[in-house]
Amino acid sequence: MKIRWVQDFMPALGAIKKKFEETKPFAGKTIAMSIHMEAKTAYLATVLKAAGAEVYATGCNPLSTQDDVAAGLASLGVHVAAWHGATQEEYLEHLRTQQPELADAKRARYQADYGLPPYDCHMITSDKALARFFEALVELGTPPKQGANWIMGQVLGALSARGLEPQEMKLTAPTLARLIALVGEGRLNRNTAVKVFEAVFDDDSDVEQYVKAHGLEQIGDEGLVAEVVARVLAANPQSAADYKGGREKAFGFLVGQVMRELKGKADPRVVNALLRRKLAE
Predict the structure, then answer these.
(1) What integer is the mean pLDDT of 60-72?
(2) Is 168 helix (H, G, I), strand (E, B) or coil?
């Protein structure tokens, strides 16, 4: 491939590329290039790619564009486009269509399409890797606001605690999407899900397997929860009387007793509903 051939004749740039592959100084950055699609300029694009940048290259010499060079760039992960217009205005318009979505436009789209508050949009688009992660969550079916909350809370917190940049984390969108889904399905409560998140964050472990191995799935069996509710009320008649007398704090105490009996695995919604139903009798 001609790009490889040029590399052999440009030792200085080759040395820079090798160093960039280790340090990734342009990680998270986007670089758009308008170049003559020849081996020497294409090799520069590969150096920028090695530095961690997302590279967009548009060939500006339609009469002499080398298809094999363009194909080589594309195979290395560079976004390649060719211009076939006749005027400078057409060329500039083509360049505009090839530009990646800028942060301001992305924030406006998130507000319009997903109904996210401006603060959420600003936080998510503060880093390209975070924005890509968020969009992957949404594509997997995660409700946008829930995805944003997990990113701003657990993801950013875990990254900060470990001194990592978003592009360095091993956690993938499918793993977090499945964890969020387990909460939505009522199989995990939010507090337990946060603990699972911390357990799988560093190695992108399978959340289903982790939950099963550690017996963390919520108890949604109303019959079992009802039995525990009955026992708790029988053991705490004064708290039951206090609640019926208007003391709402007593209800919180009773919920806590039921959750303790069930080792924190009961669905709080089921516990609350059954308790209130029993206390209303």
Answers:
(1) 62
(2) helix
Residue 228 tokens read as 């525990």
- Measured over the CA atoms of residue 211, residue 212, residue 214 and residue 219, the dihedral's sign is positive
Sequence-distant (6+) residues with CB within 8 A of 5 are: 39
185-193: which pairs have CB atoms within 8 A and are 24 or more residues apart?
186/218, 186/220, 186/267, 186/269, 187/211, 187/217, 187/218, 187/220, 188/216, 188/217, 188/218, 189/218, 189/264, 189/267, 189/268, 191/264, 192/216, 192/218, 192/264, 192/265
Rounded-to-integer distance, Cα 182 and Cα 193, Å: 8
Quick check: 21 pLDDT over 50? yes
Under 8 Å CB-to-CB from 141, ≥6 apart: which residues? 177, 181
Per-residue pLDDT tens for 85-131?
556 676 667 667 667 788 899 999 999 999 999 999 999 999 989 99
Burial environment of residue 155 by CB neighbours within 10 A (0 to 12, 13 to 18, 19 or more): buried
* Separation of alpha carbons 173 and 162, rounded Å: 19
Measured CA to CA, the distance from residue 196 to residue 187 in angstroms comes to 12
- Range list of β-strands (E), 26-78: 30-35, 54-59
Cα→Cα distances 250→155, 222, 229, Å = 36, 22, 14
Give the pTM.
0.61
What would the pLDDT profile of 226-265 be if each residue is shown by its tens digit? 899 999 999 999 998 988 888 889 899 999 999 888 887 8
